[in-house]
Write a structure and sequence with these properties.
15 helices; 2% strand; elongated; single chain; mainly alpha; two-stranded antiparallel sheet
């Protein structure tokens, strides 16, 4: 979680909203169960406008409430799991966005939030998928899970720049998976999302192994044209992780 986000919240709150949130934070610190009432009420009291870096005002206000919880470790994980299970999509998104912050204030939280990340990645809700793939997931998802999360983003049109940790976690197998995806698109005469190419270029052999370059010799004009466009985009990119 960007440490500037909590500080950016206050100018976006009316006096009444600020008073309500301060009171709710105080109550949560004294009585954790009060969070279950305050959490869904945030948008009504604080608003829902865009804040920054993919966060809304409501997301940041909910993160502040979560930070006030005096719970740690398993008890903290159980509480946020309950919020997530019974919350609507905006409440689930706020929990996912706050996972990095929760680990920051409680080292014993560690990977206890991973079940919520995995649940979001099984959904088709792009807001939840994107919220799940922040710094917390980049640290804790195993390599296979991370690769499939990246591929799911590509299939769902989520820009890869919004996936935390990609430069550090790209490996040969992920490059192969994305190159094979690109070949499937080209074979259907379709364009390839340009943001996969830096990942593929990090392991150049993946493109040749996919068979995509051979599509420039296809008897089908749409496949040849799609292959030419893809290869031009590939040639114009810098490998992931390069300076």
């Amino acid at each position: 979680m960007d440490p500037s986000i909590p500080h950016a919240l206050d100018p976006h709150l009316t006096a009444d909203a600020a008073d309500w949130l301060a009171d709710a934070v105080g109550r949560v610190g004294q009585e954790p169960a009060s969070l279950r009432t305050a959490f869904p009420a945030v948008r009504r009291h604080c608003g829902r406008g865009l804040l920054q870096a993919g966060w809304t005002v409501a997301d940041a206000a909910r993160a502040r409430l979560l930070a006030a919880l005096p719970l740690r470790g398993v008890m903290l994980a159980q509480e946020i799991t309950t919020l997530h299970r019974f919350g609507d999509a905006t409440e689930q998104r706020a929990v996912l966005l706050a996972l990095d912050m929760l680990e920051g204030v409680d080292e014993t939280f560690a990977d206890l939030g991973l079940p919520l990340v995995r649940e979001a990645l099984r959904s088709n809700d792009t807001d939840l998928i994107e919220a799940a793939l922040g710094p917390y997931a980049a640290r804790h998802l195993d390599q296979e899970g991370y690769r499939h999360a990246v591929l799911k983003c590509v299939f769902n049109g989520i820009p890869l720049e919004r996936v935390a940790g990609l430069d550090e976690r790209v490996d040969r197998e992920l490059a192969r998976m994305l190159a094979d995806f690109a070949h499937e698109r080209v074979a259907a005469g379709r364009d390839v999302p340009g943001d996969i190419w830096p990942v593929v270029r990090a392991h150049p052999g993946a493109l040749i192994a996919s068979g995509l370059p051979a599509e420039t010799q296809s008897p089908a004009p749409d496949r040849r044209a799609a292959a030419a466009r893809a290869l031009a985009d590939y040639a114009a990119t810098t490998p992931a992780g390069a300076a």
